[in-house]
Design goal:
single chain; alpha+beta; Nucleoside Triphosphate Pyrophosphohydrolase; three-stranded antiparallel β-sheet; 7 strands; globular
């Protein structure tokens, strides 16, 4: 099995909405990408949010980790992605899909709408925990 370390961002706007992307398979989730040699997890997460969503975000807290496995048709072997997540904030809800061949739709959604859209249960759990932490951090900061 191929093990890949990845990093991604759960991005909240100042209106308490969260950014989601829909991939070419119709699955809704968060921006993320593979960590390459010598890269910091946080740098990869910020870069993927910028590349996939066109969003300049700021990391406000670690969010935790998730893992998932799939069979890669192109590699002809199982793959396990281990993702380190960061809670991020952005001032506005401007975005642009940076990889239109990989992503069909995107946007900022209310937490309730996002919970209905997100494809995988572990991503819904990640959103729930991240939103609670986001509200806590933002209330302390103000």
């Amino acid at each position: 099995m191929l093990l890949r370390n990845c990093a991604g961002g759960v991005v909240f706007s100042s209106n308490n909405k969260v950014f989601l992307l829909q991939n070419e398979k119709g699955e809704w989730g968060f921006p993320k990408g593979v960590i390459k040699n010598g890269e910091l997890q946080s740098e990869v997460a910020l870069r993927r949010v910028l590349k996939e969503g066109g969003i300049n975000a700021t990391i406000i807290s670690p969010a935790g980790r998730t893992n998932y496995e799939f069979f890669s048709v192109t590699r002809q072997q199982p793959v396990c992605n281990r993702i380190t997540w960061y809670i991020m904030s952005t001032e506005n809800e401007d975005y642009s899909i940076g990889e239109p061949d990989k992503y069909k739709k995107a946007g900022f959604f209310t937490i309730e709408d996002a919970m209905e859209k997100i494809t995988y249960s572990q991503d819904r759990s990640l959103l729930h925990v991240s939103y609670l932490k986001y509200k806590e951090v933002m209330s302390v900061a103000s």
